[in-house]
């Protein structure tokens, strides 16, 4: 049968609205709404049959029961827009839960002319698009089929609207300028973060629930959360340094995730200043940029090398010539490290192989030296110096045949192992900047 013959057979099952008729043939003509397509088919059939064209009242339609009326699309579009008037967003998506009866009617309609149950376009796809177009026009935002700023979900049967405000993200690098500060919150293990042991205040954390008063997270993320008017926030770092180590030099990449933000289009330079004032010299951030959820995975999955500076104390005097020779031996060396004693309670006991790219240093006096190590990610530098009772081979202590400990450790740089993993990727941030500028005439499906 031809399209007109099929359309005539469907139209005979009145009352059937133009949108439900046109939707069946949505994959066979383009550039029209389903209502326009259905009307055109009726007019063409009436001309061929030499009968008058008679419009159908959409509210009486047996398939959609009036859901496809223009005023319904308008109402839902306005309803979506009205619940986010106090929320900044640049992208959105609309989803629809189709009532079971409409789904069943759709199948019956198509099967009546021998079509597949999903022929043309599904009811929910039309609803998503038509309501989505109206949301975009009212709010001057653009549709995003990946991960939009806001997800609207319409439940037609329950007559409810669910709004999911997705997180927003800020990328940057931080320097930690004081020792004794962990990267993220560190709940007290003695009281499991409650602050109490039984009915008594926990003596280990003095009732705070945390082993450390401050963290890089606590000195940065709450400020971003406040500026973006979010409900909560979390901190994602590209690895982490020891609590007693400084993070200097180029800083460590991080992403702050703010949940359910009311503001997105913020001045990151101003935020950078606000964070640095709040951190009061303990932590410093720079190069803040708006990012998206993909950056969290990039940061957490970074294959990074690090450069360290260690202040080393030797158990016995060290000869300068021997010291230089030991560092030369470590440069470009492959290091085998069995899980260090200090972390074996939380790490699998295995032997890890890592590379030292460069080792350099100076003797300050016969028992004190400053050593700089550039090594692959996952290299335990303290153990590279001390040997960890033979668990790390080779080591500086082993090569010098004396005990050696790291008195202070500073991280001077965190670098992507390959150019393709670079975080300061201009193309990436150009994409983010583009998403921060709402586009006109959005469409939705």
TrEMBL record:
<comment type="similarity">
    <text>Belongs to the pseudouridine synthase Pus10 family.</text>
</comment>
<feature type="active site" description="Nucleophile">
    <location>
        <position position="242"/>
    </location>
</feature>
<dbReference type="Pfam" id="PF21238">
    <property type="entry name" value="Pus10_C"/>
</dbReference>
<feature type="binding site">
    <location>
        <position position="380"/>
    </location>
    <ligand>
        <name>substrate</name>
    </ligand>
</feature>
<dbReference type="InterPro" id="IPR039894">
    <property type="entry name" value="Pus10-like"/>
</dbReference>
<keyword id="KW-0694">RNA-binding</keyword>
<feature type="domain" description="Pus10 THUMP">
    <location>
        <begin position="76"/>
        <end position="155"/>
    </location>
</feature>
<dbReference type="GO" id="GO:0160148">
    <property type="term" value="F:tRNA pseudouridine(55) synthase activity"/>
</dbReference>
<dbReference type="InterPro" id="IPR020103">
    <property type="entry name" value="PsdUridine_synth_cat_dom_sf"/>
</dbReference>
<dbReference type="GO" id="GO:0000049">
    <property type="term" value="F:tRNA binding"/>
</dbReference>
<dbReference type="GO" id="GO:0031119">
    <property type="term" value="P:tRNA pseudouridine synthesis"/>
</dbReference>
<protein>
    <recommendedName>
        <fullName>tRNA pseudouridine synthase Pus10</fullName>
        <ecNumber>5.4.99.25</ecNumber>
    </recommendedName>
</protein>
<feature type="domain" description="Pus10-like C-terminal">
    <location>
        <begin position="169"/>
        <end position="414"/>
    </location>
</feature>
<dbReference type="InterPro" id="IPR055174">
    <property type="entry name" value="Pus10_THUMP_arc"/>
</dbReference>
<dbReference type="InterPro" id="IPR048741">
    <property type="entry name" value="Pus10-like_C"/>
</dbReference>
<comment type="function">
    <text>Responsible for synthesis of pseudouridine from uracil-54 and uracil-55 in the psi GC loop of transfer RNAs.</text>
</comment>
<keyword id="KW-0819">tRNA processing</keyword>
<dbReference type="InterPro" id="IPR005912">
    <property type="entry name" value="Pus10"/>
</dbReference>
<feature type="binding site">
    <location>
        <position position="308"/>
    </location>
    <ligand>
        <name>substrate</name>
    </ligand>
</feature>
<dbReference type="Pfam" id="PF22023">
    <property type="entry name" value="Pus10_THUMP_arc"/>
</dbReference>
<keyword id="KW-0413">Isomerase</keyword>
<dbReference type="InterPro" id="IPR036410">
    <property type="entry name" value="HSP_DnaJ_Cys-rich_dom_sf"/>
</dbReference>
């Amino acid at each position: 049968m031809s399209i007109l013959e099929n359309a005539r057979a469907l139209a005979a099952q009145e009352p059937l609205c133009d949108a439900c008729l046109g939707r069946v043939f949505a994959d066979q003509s383009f550039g029209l709404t389903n209502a326009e397509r259905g009307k055109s088919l009726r007019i063409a059939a009436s001309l061929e049959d030499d009968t008058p064209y008679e419009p159908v009242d959409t509210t009486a339609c047996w398939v959609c029961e009036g859901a496809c009326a223009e005023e319904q699309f308008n109402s839902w579009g306005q309803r979506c827009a009205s619940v986010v008037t106090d929320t900044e967003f640049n992208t959105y998506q609309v989803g629809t839960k189709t009532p079971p009866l409409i789904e069943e009617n759709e199948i019956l309609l198509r099967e009546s002319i021998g079509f597949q149950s999903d022929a043309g376009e599904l009811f929910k796809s039309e609803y998503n698009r038509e309501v989505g177009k109206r949301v975009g026009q009212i709010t001057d935002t653009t549709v995003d089929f990946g991960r939009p700023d806001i997800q609207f979900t319409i439940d037609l049967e329950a007559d409810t609207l669910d709004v999911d405000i997705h997180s927003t993200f800020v990328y940057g690098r931080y320097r930690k300028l004081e020792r004794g500060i962990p990267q993220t919150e560190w709940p007290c293990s003695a009281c499991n973060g409650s602050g109490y042991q039984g009915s008594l205040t926990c003596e280990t954390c003095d009732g705070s629930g945390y082993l450390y008063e401050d963290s890089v997270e606590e000195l940065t993320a709450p400020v971003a959360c406040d500026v973006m008017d979010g409900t909560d926030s979390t901190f994602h770092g590209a690895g982490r340094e020891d609590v007693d180590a400084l993070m200097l030099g180029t800083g460590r990449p991080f992403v702050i995730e703010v949940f359910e933000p009311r503001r997105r289009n913020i001045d990151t330079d101003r935020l950078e200043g606000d964070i640095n004032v709040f951190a009061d010299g303990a932590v410093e951030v720079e190069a803040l940029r708006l990012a998206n959820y993909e950056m969290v995975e990039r940061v957490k999955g970074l294959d990074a090398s690090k450069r360290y500076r260690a202040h080393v104390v030797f158990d016995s005097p060290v000869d300068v010539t021997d010291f230089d020779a030991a560092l030369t031996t470590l440069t470009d060396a492959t290091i085998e490290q069995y899980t260090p004693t200090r972390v074996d309670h939380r790490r699998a006991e295995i032997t890890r192989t890592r590379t030292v790219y460069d080792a350099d240093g100076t003797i300050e006096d016969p028992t004190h030296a400053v050593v700089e190590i550039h090594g692959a990610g996952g290299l335990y530098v303290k153990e590279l110096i001390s040997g960890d009772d033979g668990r790390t081979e080779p080591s500086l202590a082993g090569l010098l045949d004396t005990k050696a400990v790291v008195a202070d450790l500073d991280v001077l740089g965190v670098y992507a192992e390959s150019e393709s993993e670079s975080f300061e990727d201009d193309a990436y941030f150009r994409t983010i900047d583009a998403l921060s500028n709402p586009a006109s005439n959005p469409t939705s499906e």
